[in-house]
């Protein structure tokens, strides 16, 4: 079994199919707590064997990276109600040339963006929508599932809700997300409301709707989302032969993802599948970095800020809902927080692209943090590092075009325009091949 409990330790216990988001006693967030003693009835080696058999299996829904860990995620959810698009089981991609440029050894990128809607948000949404589908089947009156979003959450919700036959309502900050992100929920039939505010303003509105209008809240303050996203941590360990890296670097906005990965590593460690936990770095854009401010002040209380515009629009959040969960996860693993400038994140993304990646700007934030930690000697050649790539770079083509069109980008690359003459093409070819691979032509 699994149930909701208050993160502050209040004594209430609530089933996962209850419509509840905060502790009714103190107002803090809830978390999903599993019966670890029951799970220990299966030895660690047997869990490892089961997860290996299910990995990318054709036996639905267990070929999903999330539902292959069904007993660790939502054990009381009936398989008949699962809504899956075979999310998860994503590539843990080595980037040796990039690592050598930084003076590091083993660096890998967990490609969470190679999922159905193009981001890691699918991992949490399959759990949440599946649970709502079961709740409706059992008589719950839920009119729709709603979220506030800066893009990726809305795409995931729209996709899974459409597949389940449930209405989706998406509230976005008008003009602050990419065209590719906006068109996804529109194409999948969601009711899209674009508000003249930022993400934090959208979040306030959607919470009020959830309280008063009979819609179910799909943002990461709902811990069902965390249960799906925590499987990223379990996958990383599984892909490394049930070892863990020394460092995991995660871009952070609303901070649900760091608490999710922390929960995944905690559970795998508690059940004996791994023998230690990695250190975690949360990377924030300097324009939206309240967690970084707290960290620099010795984990001070959250001081919400008005987030400034950033290229990493999905993490342009000044009042993160999962702040306390994130701090708890970071303190438990000797974690750190880093903040990076707009130029640093753009150059880091472009540098990684020159090594075969095609990164979203949020992954650029994590890569820039890695570069800063490597330059400071905090991360060394002896360390194995995994960077979490949260979304497909294809959703942020405008970010890529803007970087390579503007003058001044360290890794800017532009077409060489030529007349239709062999000698001109030959000269440009030889000149280009003679220049260093990472220099501008």
Description of the molecule:
The strands form 3 sheets. A 6-stranded mixed sheet has the order 4-5-13-10-11-12, sandwiched between helices. It has a 4-stranded parallel sheet with strand order 8-7-6-9, sandwiched between helices. It has a 3-stranded antiparallel sheet with strand order 2-1-3. The protein has 17 helices and 13 strands. Helices cover 40% and strands 15% of the residues. The protein is globular and about 75 Å long. Helix 6 (152-164) links the parallel strand 6 and strand 7. The protein folds into 2 domains: 2-120 and 225-397, Rossmann fold (3-Layer(aba) Sandwich), CATH 3.40.50.1100; 121-223, Rossmann fold (3-Layer(aba) Sandwich). It has helices at residues 36-39, 44-54, 70-73, 96-101, 121-137, 152-164, 179-187, 199-212, 223-229, 231-239, 256-270, 290-296, 323-332, 342-353, 361-375, 397-405, 422-434; strands at residues 2-6, 13-15, 30-34, 92-94, 106-111, 144-148, 168-173, 191-195, 215-217, 247-251, 279-285, 336-340, 384-389. It has 441 residues and is of the alpha/beta class. The longest helix is centred in the first third of the chain and has 17 residues, at 121-137. The chain starts with a strand and ends in a 7-residue tail after the last helix. The mean pLDDT is 94. Helix 5 runs parallel beside helix 6, helix 5 crosses helix 9 and helix 9 packs across helix 11 (256-270).
């Amino acid at each position: 079994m699994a149930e909701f409990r208050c993160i502050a330790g209040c004594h209430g216990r609530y089933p996962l199919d209850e419509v509840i988001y905060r502790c009714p006693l103190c107002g803090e967030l809830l978390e999903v707590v599993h019966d670890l003693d029951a799970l220990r009835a299966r030895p660690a080696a047997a869990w490892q064997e089961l997860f290996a058999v299910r990995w990318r299996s054709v036996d639905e829904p267990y070929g999903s990276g999330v539902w292959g860990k069904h007993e660790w995620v939502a054990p009381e959810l009936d398989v008949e109600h699962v809504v899956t698009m075979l999310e998860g089981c994503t590539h843990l991609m080595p980037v040796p040339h990039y690592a050598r440029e930084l003076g590091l050894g083993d660096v890998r990128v967990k490609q969470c963006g190679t999922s159905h809607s193009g981001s890691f948000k699918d991992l949490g949404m399959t759990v949440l929508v599946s649970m709502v589908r079961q709740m409706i089947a059992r008589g719950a009156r839920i009119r729709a599932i709603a979220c506030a979003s800066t893009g990726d959450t809305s795409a995931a919700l729209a996709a899974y809700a459409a597949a389940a036959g449930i209405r989706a309502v998406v509230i976005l900050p008008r003009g602050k997300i990419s065209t590719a992100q906006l068109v996804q929920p529109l194409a999948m039939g969601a009711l899209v409301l674009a508000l003249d505010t930022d993400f934090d303003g959208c979040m306030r509105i959607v919470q009020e709707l959830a309280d008063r209008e009979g819609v179910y809240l799909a943002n990461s303050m709902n811990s069902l989302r965390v249960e799906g996203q925590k499987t990223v941590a379990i996958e990383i360990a599984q892909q490394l032969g049930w070892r863990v890296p020394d460092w995991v670097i995660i871009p952070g906005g609303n901070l649900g993802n760091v608490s999710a990965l922390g929960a995944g590593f905690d559970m795998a460690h508690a059940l004996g599948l791994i023998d230690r936990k990695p250190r975690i770095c949360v990377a924030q854009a300097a324009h939206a970095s309240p967690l970084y401010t707290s960290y620099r002040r010795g984990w001070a209380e959250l001081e919400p800020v008005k987030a400034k515009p950033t290229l990493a629009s999905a993490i342009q959040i000044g009042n993160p809902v999962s702040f306390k969960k994130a701090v708890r996860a970071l303190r438990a693993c000797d974690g750190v927080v880093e903040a990076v400038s707009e130029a640093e994140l753009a150059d880091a993304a472009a540098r990684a692209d020159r090594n075969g990646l095609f990164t979203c700007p949020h992954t650029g934030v994590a890569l820039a943090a890695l570069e800063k930690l490597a330059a400071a000697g905090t991360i060394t050649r002896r360390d194995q590092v995994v960077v979490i790539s949260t979304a497909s770079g294809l959703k942020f083509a405008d970010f890529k075009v803007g970087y390579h069109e503007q003058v001044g980008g360290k890794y800017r690359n532009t077409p060489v325009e030529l007349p239709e003459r062999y000698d001109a093409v030959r000269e440009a070819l030889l000149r280009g091949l003679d220049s260093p691979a990472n220099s501008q032509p």
